[in-house]
Amino acid sequence: MSPMRTPMPLRAVAQPVAWWMVNHWVRWAFPGVPTLSPQSLANWLSQGKDPLPILLDVRRDDEFAVSHLPESYIAPDLAAALALGLDPDQPIVAYCSVGYRSARLAAQLQAAGYTQVYNLAGSIFQWANEGRSLVQSGQPTTNVHPYNSRWELLLKPGLACLPEKPAPTAEEKV
Question: What's this model's pTM, rounded to 2 decimal places?
Answer without folding.
Answer: 0.88
